[in-house]
């Protein structure tokens, strides 16, 4: 993305397929905040990335006037606080805010971590079979949490939806790796992903499932178990 005028001094250290970076892009779009996307080569980390996130050396990092804010969920909360004039993603009620943070954390500790084990571990191995079991349980849990609501956040698209929706593009890959039918496991979640994908902020920030599947193949070839 080219530099935009009046971008509030916002720059995002980015990576095209990262669901964590995509969260930040969706949030920025929902808030109407222009920014500069700085795509990173994660195989050859830039001096800027290492300097901005010396602890983890990972994207995403939001630079606001040169000041770094690291970790995607922290960035989402920061944007709510730093730009109170923009539409808020977190609800105002403390209990509802805690609820939103819980489910955002659930996706990171359950869905993402299981997904890594699905592509990294050898197909049919005990660790991969266990990851499949945990992934199915996690997706069913999310499906139950969604229930009959239009969005995970309730009647309106919100913080939980922003946190979870980037992983929707990975559902096809999870199903193929784990050899399960995603629409059978989490039908309401699949329908929810379709609704979210109609939003401009989401459509412009995530990639088609087949493109993600190609990237998963790259990860398996480069980092997956060989034996």
UniProtKB/TrEMBL annotation:
SUPFAM superfamilies: GST C-terminal domain-like (SSF47616), Thioredoxin-like (SSF52833). It catalyses: RX + glutathione = an S-substituted glutathione + a halide anion + H(+). One of its GO terms (molecular function) is glutathione transferase activity. Keywords: Cytoplasm, Transferase. It comes from the Eukaryota. InterPro entries: Glutathione-S-Trfase_C-like, Glutathione-S-Trfase_C_sf, Glutathione_S-Trfase, Glutathione_S-Trfase_N, GST_C_Tau, Omega/Tau-like, Thioredoxin-like_sf. The keyword Cytoplasm applies. Its EC number is 2.5.1.18. Residues 8-87 form the GST N-terminal domain. It is found in: Cytoplasm, Cytosol. One of its GO terms (biological process) is glutathione metabolic process. The keyword Transferase applies. Residues 93-215 form the GST C-terminal domain. GO terms for cellular component: cytosol. It is an enzyme of class 2 (transferase). Belongs to the GST superfamily. Is involved in the conjugation of reduced glutathione to a wide number of exogenous and endogenous hydrophobic electrophiles. This is Glutathione S-transferase.
